Structure formats: structure tokens, C-alpha cells
Amino acid sequence: MTKQKPISWDHLNNQFCMKLNWGTSIAIFYSIFVIVMVFMVVRATQTSVELVQPNYYNKDIHYESFRQSRQNNAILLTQVEIKYTPQIHTVSIIFPEDMEHISGEVTLYRPSNKFQDKKIKINTNDQKTMEIDTQQLSKGLWRVIIHWSAGGKDYYKEKSITL
């Protein structure tokens, strides 16, 4: 009975290295690099680059008045309420009873798609409530942003809701 020689791993490793010399290694590396770069360029050109706010520079200039509007809202004795009722597909905005001559607008802001944003002029009933129908809006995350004036002061409030 003859004894078989064990397989030499060094011998197999040397055979592999002989076929894969440094020039071939560099060619493989650059080929993989080019494929990854082409993939990244194609992916980057397909990505949407919408600005969150088209007039962000103007908003930055007027940030102090925005901060004051938020502070005015924070010191109200009775806060403005934003309620979403899914059963009747309605967002209710309830203003304080003592607030007179309310004017401004409500923005339904859709973070995932700026083309779905809605701006609605504030129009309250006798109970200082405004109802907004949400049946026509897409399901998902929305931000209700209220910017209004009453009694010579500006106010700002926002709340995220999920339809």
C-alpha cells in the first residue's frame, strides 16, 4: 500500500499567486473602482434634490420675527389646539375664545413631497374653530403649520400628524 502525499497548501497558494500577478491585481482593483463610481454617479443623478424651503435665505433673515411669533404662542394662557380625528378625516384647529380678528394661514406641509403641500387661509366659525378636510390628502406624515395674527401680534405653531 502506497502512502499518499498530503496536499501542500503552499503549493496551491503559489499556483494561485502565479496566475494573479500585481498587474492583474491592479486591473481588477481599477475595474471594481470604475464600476462602483459609475453606479454612484447613476444613483446620484436619480436622487431628488428638492430644497425643503425654496426661499430659505429670506426665512433666515427674518428668523428673529419667527422666534418672536413662537414665543408669543408659548405665553398664551389658552393654547391653540390642533386635533386630528381619523374617523371623520378632519383636522380641527381651535383658537382661544378671547382671541379677536384672527387672520393668517395654515400650511399642510408634506416633508416627503413638496408638490403635495397645501396652504389654506384661516377662516374660523363662531366657536373660533377651523375644520380642514383631509380625505383628499395622501396617507403618511404631515406637518400642520399655523402662522396667524391677532390683536397686533404674530403667532406660530406647528404639529406633526399622521394620516
How are the secondary structure elements laid out?
Layout: H1 9-19, H2 22-46, H3 56-61, H4 63-74, E1 81-85, E2 90-94, E3 103-109, E4 118-121, E5 129-133, E6 141-150, E7 153-162
Antiparallel strand pairs: 1-2, 2-5, 3-4, 3-6, 6-7
Concise overview:
The protein has 163 residues and is α+β, with helices and mostly antiparallel strands.
Write structural notes for this entry.
The chain starts with 8 loop residues before the first helix and ends with a strand. The mean pLDDT is about 85. It is elongated and about 105 Å long. It is an alpha+beta fold and about 160 residues long. A four-stranded antiparallel β-sheet has the order 4-3-6-7. Strands 1-2-5 form a three-stranded antiparallel β-sheet, with no helix packed on it. The protein is built from four helices and seven strands. β3 and β4 form a beta hairpin. About 35% of the residues lie in helices and about 30% in strands. The chain folds into two domains: about 40 residues; about 110 residues, Immunoglobulin-like, CATH 2.60.40.3080.
Key words describing this protein structure:
single chain; alpha+beta; Immunoglobulin-like; 4-stranded antiparallel sheet; 3-stranded antiparallel sheet; 7 strands; elongated
